């Protein structure tokens, strides 16, 4: 269905309207993505920043309008398997946690830093563990520019779910959530002209940026009460298994499990996030890139990531490389790119991972 758009005065905006353009700041960073459903705090933000009107979408950006044949419906009924319980984070939760993280970044020397951190992380922990979710629909991660602090919320959320599959205990899952929220807190010590630069960093600027994980560790070290795991997750999340990371170029067993997990979540989020100087990778491509990073990432953490993410939720419609449309009926827990699909016209069942006859078929 074609998307109709129109320009609407800020005074006439209503919650539930869908944004038809990107909202950027003065440096060109994306603050609100196109397609975002407007909530009260978004409208308030636009008003406070003197934006008089914006473009909204009047039609839904639906996928292909595909009808299932009777044969396909029977095949779906016969083969459909529900996805595992997935995390669902409300936008108001993400907003509050993100604002809490921003407060922490801005007040690293506060006497209440540890207490505030625990309060901020508690709401995220409740949301992650509420329904004993074991997977996450990565399409629901509302990634935007990392300096809006949503990056930290997304990395923390993803790290906690990966941590479950990795085998972390309940208290450790809470702790890795804290480490994920604070993994970039050291950037508060990086010069603003580098941190907010809208272009790629020079080699010298990137050298300075590399110190942010060390600065973050020192911030936590100065606030008694953070566990070794939390501090290690912050310090080592840019280390690589082959010893070619930073800030200390350690590898293998010297990297704490928290850091190994956060590294995978951080790399994924960085790949899909748009920057003024680069487009974000499609989620499918980002997963494929991560699967190639066997020298950099811990294999157990990578596998835990792959078995935790839902790329094509059951019941979604996809287009196949053989020209057919299909309905996803079952996800493969080890290979999120290769679910089981029923062709919407013929009712043919394509098990993209286990059927050798489907090896050449991919989802487009």
In short:
The chain has 364 residues and is of the alpha+beta class. The chain is 40% helix and 11% strand.
Quaternary status of these chains?
A: single chain
CATH class of the largest domain: Mainly Alpha
User: What is the first-to-last residue Cα distance?
Assistant: 19 Å
The radius of gyration over CA amounts to 22 Å
The helix-and-strand class reads alpha+beta
CATH superfamily of the largest domain: Hypothetical protein af1432
Along the chain, the helix and strand elements come as EEEEHEHEHHEHHHHHHHHHEEEEE
**How many domain modules?**
3
Anisotropy-based shape: globular
The proportion of residues in beta strands is 5-15%
**CATH architecture of the largest domain, please?**
Orthogonal Bundle
> Mean pLDDT, rounded to whole units?
86
Weakly predicted, low-confidence segments = 143-148
Helix content: 40-55%
